User: What shape does this take?
Amino acid sequence: MRKTVIAGNWKMNMTPSKTTEFIKALAPEVAAYNKADIVLCVPFVNIPAAVEAANGTNIAIGAENVHFEPKGAYTGEISAEMLVECGVKYAIVGHSERRQYFGETDETVNLRAKAAIASGLTAIICVGETLEMRESGITAEIVAIQTKKALAGISKEDLAKVIIAYEPVWAIGTGKVATTEQANEVCAIIRDVVAGLYDKASADELTIQYGGSMNAANAADLLAMSDVDGGLIGGASLKVADFTTIVKAAQ
Ligand code: PEP
Assistant: This one.
């Protein structure tokens, strides 16, 4: 049985003190919900506060990015080892905002995913098409290429440390959500690609999330789909009540 994972992506929001406040409020609300793994991916400087506030709860902390080199002259970057030592368990890799604004490529996504996994982090690898790609009818090809390139050189055993988030770029932060059928269809395509790269059993075990304007109102329908194993949630993860509702919808 594959795991359902509900992960928040705070992007560039919240401060350390607001992080503590948020997690202290969220923890009791979600304490009884154990059918989904609950993750909050927070800005680097908020990580110590997040880890401390989440200590003893069922909330795990993730980072929003990770560098692929273990150390060195990479000003402004953060290594997997640094994250692990801070108590981080997950790292988002290849979010579309990083691909769009920070020059992230399929190659660097792959390097970051491998570095994360090698240090024991679970990599949440984001893939997804732009609106133009969808309208051109090449969604399946795009997510297949992104998935194959992201997973290059990752062993079948290490797939246990991978989550793939299907995030149609046109649905992120726009309020435009994919239909349940669109989300499920592409998550199933990704699973088929993974089955081709590894085998069906490995693909069946892989957690594939949907992300893109998932919120308290639409989460239950999206999460009920057969190939959607959780969500990567931006805006709605910044509100305790909304994020709680999404966690509950995953039960
Ligand atoms: C995201 O940041 O990954 C995301 C899906 O954002 P939103 O939920 O705000 O669309």
